[in-house]
AraC family transcriptional regulator
Amino acid sequence: MTTKCIPLERLKREVNLINPFINKISDLYSVRGLDVVSRPHRLNFSALIYITEGQGLHYVEHQQHRLRTGSMLVLGKNQIHAFAKERSVDGYVLSFDCSFLSNGSNDPYFDLLLSAMVHINCVHHADEDIGPLFSAMVNEFESTSEFKDEIIRNLIRSIILKAVVPSYQHQKQSSQRIGNNDYYRLKKYIDEHFQDRPTAGDIALALGKSTKQLDKLAKDHAGLSVKELVDERVLVEAKRLLAFSQYSISDIANRLGFNEATNMTKFFKRHTDVNPKDFRQLCKIGLHQK
C-alpha cells in the first residue's frame, strides 16, 4: 500500500539521546528486511555508515553513491536515504544525536563538526586508520567502563575530524571560522521552523540576537544570509517531498508555507531553473542528481 508521506526512522533511545548505538549493515538487512531498508526514509537523528567489505550503491537525497571498502556515508537529521535493493556490502551503521558530540558550551570544534556533517554526505576514500577507530568503538559499546560514554564521544569526534572535516574544508577551499554554539542554535531554529518561513527579524527575536549579528554568523559559517539559509532549507524540503512523497504540488506548497502553489513554483524555478512538476518527473526517471 502506497502512502503519501516519507517514512520516519526514529532513534531507538529517544528518551536517552546520550546513548548512540551501532549495528552491522548485514544485521539491518536480516532483522528489518529488504523492503524496509531499501525504501527511502527520513532520519530524526544523524548517522555514519562505514563500509568494511564489498562494493555497492546507497542513495542519499537525490544522489546515488557508489561505495567500496573504506567509504563512509554521513547522514544528517531529516535527510532521506535508502540502502540498495540487494546487499553487496557490509560494515557499521552508527546512529546518534548530534548533541552527544558536544563537549560543553565552550567546545571550540562543535560548530565545525556540525557544518562538516551538513555539507558532506560521502567520503569515498577514508584514511586507513578510520577502520580501527570503528573497531575500537564496537569494543567500547560492550565495555562496562565508567568512562564509556566519553570514550565513544571522542571516537566519533575523531572519525569526523579525521575524515569528514578535511573533505568539508577542501570543498570550501578555505577553513571555516570556529565559533561557539550560536550557529548550531541558528541552524536548529531554522530546521524546526522553516515551514513558517520566519524572517531574519523573527529568528533574531527568538534567539536574543540582532539581525546584524545573525547575518554575520550565517555569513561567517555558511557564506549565506539568514534569509538564504531559510530559503535553502525550504528548497531542500521541497525537493524531498517532490522526489519521495505522493503529495500534490499544491499540498507541498501549503506544507511549506506558500500562500499559493504558483508562488512555490516561482520560488522553486528561481533556485533550480526547473519547475516542481518537471523536477518530480526527472526524479522518477533517475536523471536529476542534485
